Amino acid sequence: MICGSRPLPLVPPRVLPKLPQPQNEVFQVAVRPKAMTPLMISRYKPGKQYGTHVDDALMRGLRTDVSFTLFLAEPETYEGGALVVESAAGEQEFKLAAGAMIVYPSTALHRVESVQKGERLAAVGWTRSFIRSSEQREILFDLDNVRRDIFDMHGKTPAFDQLSKCSANLLRMWADD
After folding, report:
1. E strand or H helix at 29, and its extent?
2. N or C: which end of the chain has fewer CB within 10 A?
3. For residues 32 and 140, what is the distance between their CA atoms, to the nearest angstrom?
């Protein structure tokens, strides 16, 4: 698979369809990507960790709004190595199945805990969003989910049309093109 002009090494074939791409609908709605950095494959062996940090505001000349980690190794194949993301609600720990991805604001403090045994393998990347504010992205994501639920339950109704109008107009107001 090619991301930009670089092949993605070490990515198991079963994971390739999960990589963030323009056609991944959930990624599109949650992130509203305008541009993406090339993916970076990170490998942690026993004793390796990445201390608490916030991602760089600019990477390769691109403002970073959203960070993501795509887990490439099954969690039972290594001990430790959890991704810990800090938020107002406290610390959240993530150690997901191969092919699962966590997306979080690039402004969040986070770290990778020390790997005790085995090997942690992940693809990481950063996205510039059309919507700079994580709060605004969350509102648009929630609105889109409710709008889809209404359509799935009742079809195209005046309520669906009104929510669609609100969502489109908020996107128009907040988009940074």
Report:
1. helix 25-31
2. C
3. 10
2-129: CATH class? mainly beta
- What residue segments make up the domains of the chain, in order of their start? 2-129, 135-174
Mean pLDDT of 153-164: 96
Burial 97-116 (b: 16+ CB within 10 A, else e): ebbebbbbbbeeebbbbbbe
The 8-class DSSP code of residue 17 comes to: G
pTM: 0.82
Cα of first residue to Cα of last residue in the chain, in angstroms, is: 28
Question: Interior CA angle at 16 toward 12 and 18, to 5°?
Answer: 120
CA distance 53 to 143: 31
Long-range Cβ pairs for the range 146-152 (8 Å, 24+)? none
